[in-house]
Amino acid sequence: MEYENQIEELCPKSLKDVDQCRKEKLAPKTWKLGVYEKPDAKFPTLGEIHIIGTPGKGMNALYIQNKSKPVDFPSDSKGTDWGYSCYFEFTVSDVKGDWIQLPRNPFTNPVWINLKKDWPVKKEGEILPAPESLEVGSIYSAGAIGNIVPIKFSGAEIVYRKENANDMNCGDEVKEVSKEELKELKMPISNLYDKDGHLIVWPAYCRGC
User: Fold this and answer.
1) Hey, what long-range contacts does 140-146 have (CB within 8 A, 24 or more apart)?
2) What is the pTM assigned to this prediction?
3) For residue 44, is it within any domain?
4) Same domain, yes or no, for 166 and 106?
5) Are residues 111 and 15 in the same domain?
6) Which of 51, 81, 85, 144 has the fewest other C-beta atoms within 10 Å?
7) How would you write the pLDDT of the chain (209 residues) with one tens digit per residue?
8) Are 104 and 153 found together in one domain?
9) What pLDDT score was predicted for residue 161?
10) What is the three-state SS of the chain?
């Protein structure tokens, strides 16, 4: 993704064919993931997820069901700045060993993918994407609910409070907050998902202060 910012170094003017070098370095790259009905590679694939990264532009994904036209597969985090975290992230509904389940939409039903199978590590130190859980004490944007700070997860409920002025003060002087602002609230964990099982809760401040 950083190739655009490094293009002068990657394709110096001293090269014989600078234009061809730039074309190759800035060309989109596509990664493919097989999509399975069950967490077992013995089953035939239902289709493929294509993740396309364009240097300096960003990433997008498509789902291509076998013998069907590609459909958009937008990230759930809806980030807009690829230079920061939570830019291009998706909901994981279950994990079984190396298998990761994705909720329905754009799939008809939940499906399974296997990163280790389709994206084998090729370089020493290379790290595959891995599922992460919501963290207690972090600030999340929760759609119409507003910004929340999880306190604990208890069975099918989440205990949380609303964000206050001191949660992201970025070094400013600590402000006095009311007891009402620190009040612990509860709601079903199901409220954190849409009707298809996609998370609506994502980090509120991906870029930090």
Assistant:
1) 140/201, 140/202, 140/203, 140/204, 141/201, 141/202, 141/203, 141/204, 142/192, 142/200, 142/201, 143/200, 143/201, 145/187, 145/191
2) 0.82
3) yes
4) no
5) yes
6) 144
7) 555 566 777 788 788 887 888 888 888 889 899 999 999 999 999 999 999 988 878 889 999 998 889 999 999 988 766 666 677 899 999 999 999 999 999 999 999 999 999 987 767 777 778 888 999 999 999 989 999 999 999 989 999 999 998 888 787 888 888 999 899 999 999 999 999 999 999 999 887 77
8) no
9) 96
10) CHHHCCHHHHCCCCCCCHHHHHHHHCCCEEEEEEEECCCCCCCCEEEEEEEEEECCCEEEEEEEECCCCCEECCCCCCCCCCCCCCCCCCCCCEEECCEEEECCCCCCCCEEEEHHHHCCCCCCCCCCCCCCCCCCCCCEECHHHCEEEEEEEECCEEEEEECCCCCCCCCCCCCCCCCCCCCCEEEEHHHHECCCCCECCEECCCCCC
Say if residue 22 is in the same domain as residue 111: yes
Instruction: Note the pLDDT tens digit of each residue in 143-193.
Output: 899 999 999 999 899 999 999 988 887 878 888 889 998 999 999 999 999
- The answer to whether 59 touches 88, Cβ cutoff 8 Å, is yes
Q: Is residue 158 part of a domain?
A: yes
Domain holding 176, by residue range, is 140-203
Q: Both ends of the chain: CA-CA distance in Å?
A: 23
